[in-house]
């Protein structure tokens, strides 16, 4: 039985940075975003279903999914968004579970940006939230993605609130500070704790 830590946090919180630090300590990483891209790759049944539903215009010239075109079709259309989620979420969930089961490290990190929103906390033994203030989220994401504040605020508003994420958390890493040494220390402490917990369920 694989011991699974669900890692989540709002946009710009530093989930990828934290996951990389855990990976450096030997933890396997299962990234929901990567799996979500894989299930709509050319040749995948989900991509064929999307093209059939929305029409060939949803595909780029090379046969790959035109993500921008798809976003435009579902953004303001709840029914189409619901159809897309009903298609993709079960496939992504199945692959996430398979990847976790195939993990060979003492515990694995399941990185899911919408872990709380999509009610996936039940897949995890513990939930780790990377927490930052909304102001930090906004500043980091604007700088990282070269996007305008209105776009980022709209994404933040569509995600779980900071309070909702923290309510679901078993463990919290505060990532407001740019102090990487302090962040690594927090990760190392949790790593040791997770090793102990993982060992306990296998004994």
Automatic annotation (TrEMBL):
Which GO MF term does the entry hold, naming one? Answer: dephospho-CoA kinase activity
- Which PROSITE patterns is this protein grouped with? DPCK (PS51219)
The protein's location, in the record's own words, is:
Cytoplasm
Instruction: Look up the record and name the pathway of this protein.
Output: Cofactor biosynthesis; coenzyme A biosynthesis; CoA from (R)-pantothenate: step 5/5
Q: Which organism is it from?
A: Oceanimonas smirnovii
Q: Which reactions does this protein catalyse? A: 3'-dephospho-CoA + ATP = ADP + CoA + H(+)
The protein's predominant localisation is cytoplasm
EC number(s) given by UniProt = 2.7.1.24
**Which keywords describe this protein according to UniProt?**
ATP-binding, Coenzyme A biosynthesis, Cytoplasm, Kinase, Nucleotide-binding, Transferase
Q: What does this protein do?
A: Catalyzes the phosphorylation of the 3'-hydroxyl group of dephosphocoenzyme A to form coenzyme A.
Q: Which domain of life is it from?
A: Bacteria
Q: Which InterPro entries match?
A: Depp_CoAkinase, P-loop_NTPase
Where are its TM segments located?
A: none
Gene name of this polypeptide: coaE
CDD domains for this protein: DPCK (cd02022)
Q: What class of enzyme is it?
A: transferase
Where ATP binds, per the record, is at: 12-17
Return the protein name. Dephospho-CoA kinase
Q: Which family does it belong to?
A: Belongs to the CoaE family.
